[in-house]
Amino acid sequence: MTASSIRFADRPDAGRQLAARLLPMGLDKPVVYALPRGGVPVALEIARALRAPLDLILVRKIGAPGAPEVALGAVVDGANPQTVINEEVRRRSGADDIFLERARARELAELERRRSRYLGSRLGVDPAGHTAIIVDDGLATGATMKAAILAMKRRGAKKICVAIPVAPAEAVEAIGEQADLVVCLHRAENFYGVGGFYDDFHQLTDEETVGLLRQGWAESPDASRSLPAGLAKRQVAVPPLGLVGDLCVPADPRGIVLFAHGSGSSRLSPRNVAVADTLNAHGFATLLFDLLKPVEAHDRRNVFDISLLAERVTEAALYISSEPDIADLPLGLFGASTGAAAALLAAAELRNRIAAVVSRGGRPDLAGTRLAEVAAPTLLIVGGEDRHVLELNRQALAALTCEKLLKIVPKAGHVFEEPGALETVTEMANAWFQHYLSPAALEPAPVAPSVEPGKPAQPVSIISALRDAVEPLPAPDDPAFASAFDRFASSRVVLLGEASHGTSEFYRARAAITRRLIEHHGFTVVAVEADWPDAAAIDRHIRQLPYQPTRVSPFTRFPTWMWRNRDVDDFIGFLRRHNDAKPPEERVSFHGLDLYSMTASIAAVLTYLDRVDPAAAAEARARYGCLAPWSRELAAYGRASLSKGYALCELPVARTLVDLLQNELRYASRDGEQFFDATQNARLVANAERYYRVMYYGSHESWNLRDRHMFETLQRVLAWAGPDGKAVVWAHNSHIGDARFTDMGAERGEVNIGQLCRQAYGSEVALIGFGTHSGTVAAASEWDAPMEIKTVRPSRPDSYEWLCHQLGHERFLLDLRRGLESSLRSALAQPRLERYIGVIYRPETERWSHYSSASLPDQYDAFVWFDQTHAVVPLPTQVTAGEDETYPFGL
């Protein structure tokens, strides 16, 4: 049977097919347990069909030392977390008790994060006496499924059924030995990855996962108490014009949705009524009202008077705030056609009062420049055949700066008249409101709103206490500077930030600290916010590995000055000299964490395969050829994939990575070092392909994919370095400061390396931020524009930088760990603005472009201050005649 002979449109399609197989079996007291994230949409359809409760079973794989893809074991969440170990893999990999304990602690921390994110305070369903149906979107090896089965047995499940759409035949047989029943729709003889059997196999976000779970909980029998009972409907008059509206309120509403009609339709629009009925059934109050008075509706110009329509939506929202039974409910807006623009204008005006916005076949572009002011999470739904409106929605999506998502209903037109189209719209809207219209959505975030501009300087008492807490530092070239950081040497990972990508003092300080950690405390890994193949050229140079010529010099992609500068060149010289005196196994390595080098990474993979396996190289070259048309403008690939409606090159690039991993023992036995480099380049290509696709679905999606790639790369480098490996990371403050205590995490749902490291390594990680008040910086005005030496404006009075400037020290270190005096910690924890300058610096719009609210003592473990700073000195990108061409910077 070929792979194409059985395929699933998407995960819900697979779930419905599994449900059809399970339904006639008459399973006794079933409870559906999903393996997140991919198993959740499959499990939801099964739970619906069987009218069974939906729950999660959280499992995390433990990877083998040096080969994290190989399952050494797994950890299963629960009151008493279960650990399952593959003793054969343990024996062959040499994993000792210390490695296992560290790995177990790391995965337990991630399980805790996922339980908190997905379940909150919700109690799980006890499987004792029930048939536990464990669901995933497919199996590869079955390692995590085996751990889940064992956990269910220990928790007293009466019977265990595994339900999966697809798996290798041998994996199904192995699972069948553990479970009472296995239902698998396709036992594949030729298996090349679960995603190969789906038309849509996109990576689910946490937000999608939580939304699906909430749908299931609202519909399941054990949640019947939360379903609406005694729905009350009344006609209202919205002041001041007395516009007629229909208000429906369930007995215990979870939120309210205000509808904004468009194109002259009224509150009686059958499509919006159908959506409202579904929302009512799921516990939401709704208000449908006429935006125009009858006499106004006769004038078609009013239908396109967006300001007038937005004013009416705002008046209705204020009316809701005045009604006692609905005033405190989270408020969402649902707009259609021109009503979508009106809803977004109202959202921009009402700001925090609006919890979420959904647009159905709308014209959000008509909201114009006000789109950037919308703070509420916004979902844009468009028919796939409504091409003109779809393009306008894409433009509006780019203009929105809030959490946002564009969903396309395939084969649907502008008014969604096609069979099943309106039902799809309704499901999407319901899921969005389920996620964002809940009491938790209105709870204060870990970071409070930014302080008002112009806030006066901090009270003298804070300045005085802070002056006593900081430790003045000498210049970075003084040995006493770096010795002040010995207190962090017991960490496994030390992350060193920077407030800009073009400041000399930040680079020189990080170099001095890193040198100290290497020479005195056994750190052997330097990992930087740079592309893997570029950093690999430096790594080969400092460790004296065989020279590998490249088509382009390292670090010649914009922004060249970020790494090709005098301070980095001096640091590389130190690393080379340090390694000269060390045996190969003790030399410090240098690695890039970022994923922008897709073209260079493809070249590196092909070069490696040309040498070790020419036949595999030819196959990989053909697969990577899928990306060739976009090699000069990779962002265009994302646009093409979006317009086609599927991932054009995902399977070919992923297949090359799978082939490398399957040949791991054969390739690695020849040259493990170069095999590790090749597999990381292959991973980078696969993740970069996804990155350029998801960037069109919202900035937080692409940010999260990028930072997770960097974090996972760091983990693989540490695993390669061995159990005693210790790493120093150089990256921007926005990456290394814990995102949970900044606007980026609290308001936009973004994660970063700092947060992920804290969750993975706990007290074995140190996050050290950097800041400055004024000076100069190397930066550009636009992406790909020339570098300029720009003057850094003095910091704002409502910022942490201004507070530090008031102390009068040229340089200092502030240790923010638990030894900090409690009253000072409390004062500093009150969110203030913090400045972030990247490769782009626009002083004229600095407040909006470069400041964000944060809580400094929660964000970092320490903060390093330079009151005045200077721009880095860039190096030329051309090799000087007569110099050693193997030197990375060719000087």
UniProtKB/TrEMBL annotation:
Gene3D superfamilies given in the database record: 3.40.50.2020, alpha/beta hydrolase (3.40.50.1820), EreA-like (biosynthetic domain) (3.40.1660.10), EreA-like, domain 2 (3.30.1870.10), PRTase-like (3.30.1310.20)
One example of a Gene Ontology biological process annotation: response to antibiotic
Domain of life of the source: Bacteria
Residue ranges annotated for the Phosphoribosyltransferase domain, each copy included: 26-200
UniProt name for this protein: Erythromycin esterase homolog
Organism from which the protein derives: Mesorhizobium qingshengii
